[in-house]
Amino acid sequence: MDELWPPPSPEVADAIRSLCQSLMSETDAMIDALTPPTLVAHNDPALLADASLAEEGRELNRSDLVQWLTANVQQPGRRVEPYVGPRATAYINDLVSRGIAPDFVGAWRVALGMGWRRWLEECAAQFPDRGLLVDVLDVSAKSLVQYALDSVLALREASLAAARGNADAEAIALIQLIAGGAPMAQDLAEGRLHYRLGRWHTGLVLWIDDPRHVDALELAVAAVSTPAPERSTLVARASTASRWLWLSGADVPDPYRVEQAMAAAPGVRGAVGRPGRGLEGFRSSHQDALAAQALVVRLASDRQFTAYADVELIDALTKDRAGARRFVVNTLGPLAGADPALRQALLTYLQCGFNTTRAAAALYVHRNTVERRVSRANELSAVKVEDNPAHLAAALLVLDIAPGVLATASH
Predict the structure, then answer these.
(1) Rounded CA gap, 303 and 301, in Å?
(2) 169-179 vs 278-298: helix crossing angle, rounded to 10
(3) Which of 33, 86, 94, 245 is 20 to 30 Å apart from 275, CA to CA?
(4) How far is the C-alpha of 11 from the C-alpha of 1, rounded, in Å?
(5) Hey, how many other C-beta atoms are within 10 angstroms of the C-beta on 350?
(6) Alpha-helical segments (H) within 128-168
(7) pLDDT tens readout for residues 195-228
(8) Cβ neighbourhood burial of 69 (10 Å; 0-12, 13-18, 19+)
(9) What CATH class has 318-407?
C-alpha cells in the first residue's frame, strides 16, 4: 500500500512498538468492551438477534484489532493493510445471504472512538515526555484513522463480491420475513419454501463454536432431519457456523428426539423452541430457539442442548449479568460455593415436585442420599425451600447453566 506520511523517528517507533506489545495481552478484554456497542451501531435487529452472527462479528473485531497491533509491532506508525481472511469473508457472505446490510461506517466510528480513548490513556500513562507523547499521538492517529478508512472500503468490496455470488438469498430472505413477523400469505410461503406451514412446528438452531467443526454440523443436521412418517423438515443455512431448522407434523414433534440425535455430534450445540402451530407457531418457535441460543452464548454455558421452555425464566433473570450474580448470591448464600452435588440434589428435588423417590431415580442414587443432601443444602441456603421454592429453583438453575456467573463481578 502507498505510504501517506513520513516514517516515525526511531524513538517514536520504539515507543509505539512497546505500547502495542503491551496491549496484545489485553485484546480479549478490549474486544469484550468494543463488541456490544459496535453491534448496536450496525443498526440491524437481525444481526443482534442471532448469537452466532454476533459471535462472528466479535471475531471480526478481534481480527481487526490484532491486525493493527501486530502491524505496528512490525512496522510502527506505518499504514496498515486490512486483512479480510476466510472467516471474515464467510461472515460477510452470511450477512448478504440473510439480507443484512450492516453499517460498517457507524460501527467503525464507534470502535475508533473507543479505541482511540484507550490509546490516549495508555500513551499518557507511558510517556511523561511531552515531545515524545505528541509525536507518538500524531503518527499513531494517522495510522489508526487510515486503517479505519481502508477497512471500511475492504468490507464494502467484500460485501459487493458476496452479493454477486449469492444464489440462495431469495429463499433466506423469505424465511427471515416470515420469522420476523412480516405479513405473508401462507400458500405463497409454502409454495416457495416447499414446506407445509399449517401444522405443528418446532424451531431449532444448531451451531458450532469452532468453524473447523462444520462437517460435524452438517452431520448433526442430517441426523436431526431423518425422515419420519408424517414429518417434514425445513433447513436454512443461517451462517457458516449455524443452521435454522423447523420440524413439523400433524401433532407436536418431540424436541428431545433432537437431543438424542445430537449426542453423537461433539462440537455441535443445539437450542429448541416451544412448539407452535401454523404460521405464528413457525415464527414463535424459531424466536424461542434464537433466545435459547443467545442465553447460552451470553452466559458462556457449555450446555450442548437447551430447550427454551426450561430456561425462559433464566433468560429473563440473566439479561443483566451483575443482577443475575446478585440474585444467585442473595438467594443461595453459602450454598452457592458448596459441593455441586448438594445443589444438584436440591434442584432435582424441586424439579421433581418435592418427590424424593423421583429425584433419587433421576440422580441414580438412594433416596436416603437425596434426603441427606437436600437437608444439608437447605441448611446452607439463604432462602429456604419452605419459604420460597420458586426463587430457590431459579437461582440453582442459573448456577447450573452458567457456573461462571459468580466470577463475573468485575465485568
Answers:
(1) 6
(2) 90
(3) 94
(4) 24
(5) 19
(6) 130-165
(7) 888 888 899 999 998 888 888 888 888 888 766 6
(8) buried
(9) mainly alpha
81: left (phi over 0), alpha (psi -120 to 50) or beta: beta
| Topology classification of domain 170-312 | Alpha-Beta Plaits (3.30.70)
* Residue type present at position 150: D
Q: Where are the domains of the chain?
A: 10-165, 170-312, 318-407
All three cell numbers of 17 = 512498538
End-to-end CA distance of the chain: 39
125: burial class by Cβ within 10 Å (0-12, 13-18, 19+)?
exposed
Which range in 103-107, 143-147, 164-168, 248-252 is most confidently predicted, on average pLDDT?
Answer: 143-147
The pLDDT of residue 392 is 92
How many beta carbons lie within 10 A of that of residue 319, not counting itself? 10
User: Residue 122 corresponds to which cell in the numbers above?
Assistant: 495508555
- The reported pLDDT for the residue numbered 303 is 87
248 membership: H or E segment, kind and range: strand 242-249
Amino acid at 206: L
**CATH 1.10.490 is the classification of domain 10-165:** yes
- pLDDT 10s digits, 48-58: 888 888 888 88
DSSP 166-205: -SSHHHHHHHHHHHTT----HHHHHHHHT---SSEEEEEE
Alpha-carbon torsion 112, 113, 115, 117, what sign? positive
**Calpha distance 190→282 (Å, rounded):** 12
Scan for cell 433447513, then name that residue.
235
Q: Please say whether the beta carbons of 123 and 56 come within 8 A.
A: no
Distance, C-alpha 39 to centroid of its chain:
12
**The C-alpha cell that represents 52 in the structure block:** 452466532
> What is the chain's length?
411
